[in-house]
Design brief:
By secondary structure, the protein is mainly alpha-helical. Helix content is 88%, strand content 0%. The chain is built from one helix and no strands. The longest helix has 36 residues.
């Protein structure tokens, strides 16, 4: 692989990772209120 190809792959990986982190955050935010309500008697 050339340096240009490596850079391309790295940037793609970073974008995917950022998206993955955002989805994780959203999932955590969506889950936490539900959990709190579930235990709120």
């Amino acid at each position: 692989m050339t340096n240009a190809q490596k850079k391309k792959v790295l940037s793609l990986c970073q974008q995917r990772y950022k998206r993955y982190l955002q989805q994780k955050k959203k999932a955590a935010q969506a889950a936490s209120p539900a959990q709190q309500q579930g235990f709120d008697f």
